[in-house]
């Protein structure tokens, strides 16, 4: 099924139950795929072109040094400008393959076939590509939209429960951005992730990206939960999965919204969030480990005349509002200290009830 996207949108979006070879590039192409998916891909009758790269990548390997051998390989083939790179894997691989495609010959076309719920709901759509630096996540990257996104639900069947839960938080994020509380509450209940939720999330993100492709305004809303989330993820030594960190960031930002004077979220909703997140409590780093990472967040800016570790540093934050669309505010990173403490308390309370 081809998803309806805005006229002129850079990426064709398809939602499928099973892989369809007719959706692969018509001209010359090569594949960069997660090695764990090789058998799934070939057993589905999908082609494995010459010079395919089957790779193993993790968040810890999401570095420039990891993609340099890919670029050298393409140059030896050689891969020409009219070729297309097909990326098969989760969010880490799609971020890296997209950046490699943007760099090679100053940009070759690419397709993304996301195989995790997190990638389907977020990383694969929008043209953001990137790798990490020691100072923080995704500090090196480029906007390079894929020509086509093909999301096949069959790829989700072998995912561990934790990885399905990991992707659920990007869906909840989309509901909170729009103030769609009934939808958010539905997704916080026990039960499998629904295909319709993914479709709704992709349709919303496509509209936002089309209106703001370079993240100059509205698209910044998609960072909801990511400010504190990225800090928690890095401070955990990446023991937290990205979506899990976003989920914790969503709870934290609901608490922050109340503290800066916005309408408070009902205790029942906060408890529902905390209940699903409670198993992650042991991985939540203490505040002193998070603050330096917030100060180095790519959305942070330094106020002239202030020391780098002083409150003069400001950070762009997205704040949800109960039953209303989220808003954007620029705040000192230190405002996150109290929500961080309250988040830990809520997780402890829910864990004690389990």
TrEMBL record:
Signal peptide: none annotated. Residues 55-165 form the 3-dehydroquinate synthase N-terminal domain. SUPFAM superfamilies: Dehydroquinate synthase-like (SSF56796). It holds the Pfam family DHQS_C. It comes from the Bacteria. This is 3-dehydroquinate synthase. The keyword Amino-acid biosynthesis applies. It comes from Geothrix edaphica. Residues 170-299 form the 3-dehydroquinate synthase C-terminal domain.
